[in-house]
Amino acid sequence: MVASFLLVAFICLALTMYLLIRTLGSHLEISDAHKKTVFITGCDSGFGNHLAKTLDRRGVNVVAGCLTDVGAAQLQEVTSSRLTTVKINIADRESVLDALRYVQDKAGEHG
Description:
globular; 3 strands
């Protein structure tokens, strides 16, 4: 009983968050978007993937952190050349440091 209640509450919360982000996100303006670079982790799927696609459509340079080569390839297929991917496993310190160096190099002065 408690488990089913928690599941329903979680689904309602997730749906509310999705609708809020989708509604508010469609009204946000990003000034000088072409000069900005955003690094997003978790872009293989879910919210990270959706955010990366949305920012790319708005003209922002995106570095999308993906855990798998498949996730990175699928994301690059549906986005512009403004979006680049970097492989990152956030549980591995060296992977995080490698991604950080890549993002710093890619972002330059517009990080």
